[in-house]
Design brief:
Strand content: under 5%
Number of helices: 3
Helix content: over 70%
Largest sheet: none
Oligomer: single chain
Order of helices and strands: HHH
Length: 100
C-alpha cells in the first residue's frame, strides 16, 4: 500500500470496526448456522454501498485481524498449537463442502 491508500483505508477503520463487531454480534450463536452467510453478505453489501471497495478492503482486514487473535486465544486456552486449530477449521470447511 502507498501512503495515500493507507490514509484512505485508515480513515474508514473506526466505522468498519464497529460494523465488524456488529456483524459478529449478529452471527455468533446464530441458529440455524445457515443464516450466517446471509448476514455476512448483507453486511458486505451495506459496506460496499456506503464505503465502496475501500470499505470492503477494510472489512476484510478487520475480520482477518479478529480471526487471527481469536485463533491464537483458542489455541492457548485449548493447549493446542495454532496450526492444530487451523487444521480443525480446514477440516470443518472440507466436511461442509463435501458432496455426497
Amino acid at each position: 500500500m502507498d501512503r495515500e491508500d493507507d490514509r484512505r483505508l485508515t480513515s474508514l477503520a473506526p466505522d468498519i470496526s464497529r460494523v465488524t463487531v456488529d456483524l459478529l454480534r449478529r452471527t455468533v450463536g446464530l441458529e440455524p448456522a445457515e443464516f450466517i452467510p446471509q448476514r455476512a453478505l448483507d453486511t458486505a453489501d451495506s459496506v460496499l454501498a456506503s464505503h465502496g471497495t475501500d470499505g470492503l478492503r477494510v472489512l476484510a482486514i478487520s475480520l482477518a485481524g479478529w480471526t487471527a487473535v481469536l485463533i491464537e486465544q483458542n489455541a492457548a486456552l485449548s493447549g493446542r498449537t495454532q496450526e492444530a486449530v487451523l487444521d480443525d477449521i480446514d477440516l470443518t470447511c472440507m466436511e461442509a463442502n463435501s458432496v455426497e
